[in-house]
Amino acid sequence: MKDLHAWAAIAIIGMAATTGDVLLSYSMKRVGDVGELWKRRGVLAVIRRVLATPTFALGVMAMAVAFYSLLFALSWGNLSLVVPASASLTFVANAVAARIFLHERVGRRRWIAALLVAGGVVLMAL
Amino acid sequence: MPQLTFRKYLVLAGITVFSTAGDSLLARGMKDLGNVSLHHFSGLLLAVLNPWVTAGILLLLTFFACYMSALSWADLTYVLPATSLAYVLVALVGHFRLHEVISPARWLGIALITAGVGFVAAGPSVTPSHQHEKSPDAVSEEVRT
Question: From the candidates A22, A92, A103, A123, which should be mutated to test the interface with B, based on the most B CB atoms within 10 A?
Fold first, then answer.
């Protein structure tokens, strides 16, 4: 039963973090190259344009959900399972979500990278 | 394939360094405060007054700015592995500064993450074709890599 709770938390954290990353990435692609915009219009224009993008706020909220779910999961222990499992799930889920929702070309190179990093994160936590 | 400028590599490095430094400072500050339970929100509010915690939060805000900046010109699947180098950095700082022992499994993990980052970094940094006006040649060139 306790394991079931931990895995439910891992799934929720992974989904929320992936949703957040995808929304934030989508927002920033809409904003465009921040460096160029800064050079042309100044830093206030950058901040105004980022905050005016509705998906940015949604992305930050999804990140907050992921962060607080992690805090709650940590409060009932099982640190050595929840942290690495949710981190590595997020890397793989992000590759899938970026391909579907952001139309990134996730080629063989990036799949291998996502799997290597996910595996590496798990090993680091052992 | 768009070439990353030196400034953009600095932003990617900033993601790794600022998230690592921010997390360590936060951890250092929370150690001063002892156990803060989730039921004592006043404790969490007072935590901001601790200089380590304040510095940690400022660094994490800097990290977030770098992360958002990187996402404005690079793919999510390119930027994310770069952030994972932070795990490696934490372990190496622990090993060389604090003389923590790194087990063989952790060394293997460090190697896997580093290899993964190398795989992505050698490829193109941005791939979606519909957001930028590109000549068909440029797009087909990216598909090959």
Answer: A123
Tokens of A106: 């996730």
B124 vs B128: CA distance, rounded Å: 11
Q: For chain A, what is the domain count? A: 1
Six token digits for residue B16: 């790794």
The position carrying tokens 């068909």 is B136
Query: A104 CA to chain B: closest CA distance, Å?
Result: 5
pLDDT digits over B81-139, tens only?
A: 888 888 888 888 778 877 778 889 989 999 999 999 988 888 888 886 544 444 444 44
Q: Do B73 and A50 touch (CB under 8 A)?
A: no
Residue range A72-101: average pLDDT? 85
> Which residue type does A69 have?
S
What are the structural domain ranges in chain B? 6-144
pTM of structure: 0.82
What's the domain range around A23?
2-124
